């Protein structure tokens, strides 16, 4: 279904995110017929560029980051036709009159994507309002990092609130746009099977792993000031945890869902220092030039920033009291794998012989790669042998279940940008959620600073430091295989 015509201004339109994610996402929605031909995309940045040279830059970016763009030559030409460029000064007045002239229509949705450093959010919001561009058709889209602690996040929220209503602010967490993340809600709230078991009486524990094989790459300067806790846990992992743990919202609408997520964050218990492990990756022994150790990669030989974190937390409410939630994420790990596992308890009593074997049901929700959901079920091992129990997966891998043409794969940014145009905030973080998340993470990070905590080294392409495995072994559990 096509969305309404819109004008989308991408501040930071020549930047990395615009080239890698935003523009390719728009192009794919254009090819799919969802983005109307009358929509307009306006790149805005500091560089002095003509429309033609910006359009050329977009074409190059699409060839690089949107495989298959060439085979859509006609569509590519039409798409480039809706693109223009304005040279703009976020801190001054240059370019604003020209931008205002371009945005003329009254009844169109106007979206302003702040793909820029957070220090420019305020100046941009102020100028949008000053030039009459912050009317009620306007929406702003902001990217993480949304602050670096509670204080800075509050200040950012307050700045944006001066010029825009909360219903106009779309804070992106691209994990919420991933297909399986929404499927998680469909599985939980569209089936009778799971919800009655979805509590501490039946669930032994929950694991959330987001493992990456990449290192910090060219983002060393940003990353060394952030670390895995700020870069991944405060946003992506906590959002996943919220969707797993929240109460069923009354409706699938933005505030009903976000109210429930907020309650989860507010019910999170503080993390005890011995329930958290930090790590920093070592160099790849076979190719240290290409894959140096963390400190070399960020150019800070004394860095104490973590590239890995594993922790155990609890949610203090009736549903989850006593059920541990284990979270881990890291760079340069064994595989690229993001998975949420709900590990159910053993049956209360086994009627079979002791050596028959005993298994726990595990519902695993795989975000990437190979999106899908698997439920481990215990059955009898086929064959003439006696009663021996084995664990087999009930596999709902989407590619297999739906066939190659059964489901259109839509990248997180495609979905989220279209949601901005449609005015649907369900998959975006509300200001109070972001603040509550910082409120929980701040003391953890402060504790490390106060104690002078040094992250533990871990081998490149491994499961992280040994202490991470010990975190679960101590509880007679183990991490799922990455
Ligand atoms: C980003 C982080 O938000 O998410 C990156 O800043 C990380 O450090 C990335 O690599 C992971 O996203 P995805 O979609 O590749 O899992």
Automatic annotation (TrEMBL):
Active-site residues, Swiss-Prot/TrEMBL: 236 (proton acceptor)
A Gene Ontology cellular-component term: cytosol
Domain Glucose-6-phosphate dehydrogenase NAD-binding residues, every copy: 9-183
A GO molecular-function annotation: glucose-6-phosphate dehydrogenase activity
Chain sites annotated for binding substrate: 174, 178, 212, 231, 331
SUPFAM superfamilies: Glyceraldehyde-3-phosphate dehydrogenase-like, C-terminal domain (SSF55347), NAD(P)-binding Rossmann-fold domains (SSF51735)
Enzyme Commission number(s): 1.1.1.49
Biological function: Catalyzes the oxidation of glucose 6-phosphate to 6-phosphogluconolactone.
Family: Belongs to the glucose-6-phosphate dehydrogenase family.
Name of this protein: Glucose-6-phosphate 1-dehydrogenase
Species this protein is from: Roseobacter denitrificans (strain ATCC 33942 / OCh 114) (Erythrobacter sp. (strain OCh 114))
């Amino acid at each position: 279904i096509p969305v309404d015509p819109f004008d989308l201004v991408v501040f930071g339109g020549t930047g990395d995110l615009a080239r890698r994610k935003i523009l390719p996402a728009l192009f794919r929605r254009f090819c799919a017929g969802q983005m109307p031909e009358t929509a307009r995309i306006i790149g805005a940045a500091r560089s002095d560029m003509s429309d033609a040279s910006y359009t050329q830059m977009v074409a190059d970016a699409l060839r690089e980051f949107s495989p298959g763009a060439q085979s859509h030559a006609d569509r590519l030409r039409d798409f480039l036709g809706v693109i223009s460029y304005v040279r703009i000064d976020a801190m001054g007045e240059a370019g604003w009159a020209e931008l205002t002239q371009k945005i003329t229509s009254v009844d169109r949705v106007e979206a302003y994507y702040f793909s820029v450093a957070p220090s420019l959010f305020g100046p941009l919001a102020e100028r949008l309002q000053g030039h009459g561009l912050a009317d009620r058709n306007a929406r702003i889209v902001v990217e993480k990092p949304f602050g670096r602690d509670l204080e800075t996040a509050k200040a950012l929220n307050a700045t944006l609130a001066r010029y825009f209503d909360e219903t106009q602010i779309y804070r992106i967490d691209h994990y919420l746009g991933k297909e399986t993340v929404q499927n998680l809600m469909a599985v939980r709230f569209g089936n009778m099977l799971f919800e009655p078991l979805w509590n501490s009486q039946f669930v032994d524990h929950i694991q959330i792993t987001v493992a990456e094989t990449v290192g910090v790459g060219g983002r060393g300067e940003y990353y060394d000031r952030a670390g895995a806790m700020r870069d991944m846990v405060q946003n992506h992992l906590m959002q996943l945890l919220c969707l797993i743990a929240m109460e069923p919202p009354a409706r699938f609408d933005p505030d009903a869902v976000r109210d429930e997520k907020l309650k989860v964050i507010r019910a999170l218990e503080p993390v005890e220092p011995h329930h958290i492990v930090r790590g920093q990756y070592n160099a790849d022994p076979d190719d240290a030039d290409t894959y140096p150790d963390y400190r070399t990669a960020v150019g800070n030989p004394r860095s104490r920033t973590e590239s890995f974190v594993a922790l155990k937390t609890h949610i203090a409410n009736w549903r989850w009291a006593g059920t541990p939630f284990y979270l881990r994420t890291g760079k340069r790990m064994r595989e690229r794998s993001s998975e949420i596992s709900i590990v159910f308890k053993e049956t209360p009593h086994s009627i079979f012989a002791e050596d028959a074997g005993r298994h726990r049901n595990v519902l695993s929700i795989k975000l990437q790669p190979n999106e899908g959901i698997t439920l481990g079920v215990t059955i009898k091992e086929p064959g003439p042998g006696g009663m021996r129990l084995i664990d087999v997966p009930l596999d709902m891998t989407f590619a297999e279940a739906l066939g190659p043409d059964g489901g259109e794969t839509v990248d997180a940014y495609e979905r989220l940008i279209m949601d901005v145009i449609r005015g649907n905030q369900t998959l975006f973080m509300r200001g109070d959620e972001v603040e509550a998340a910082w409120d929980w993470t701040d003391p953890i990070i402060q504790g490390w600073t106060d104690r002078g905590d040094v992250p533990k080294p871990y081998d490149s392409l491994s499961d992280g430091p040994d202490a991470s495995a010990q975190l679960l072994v101590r509880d007679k559990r183990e991490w799922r295989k990455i």
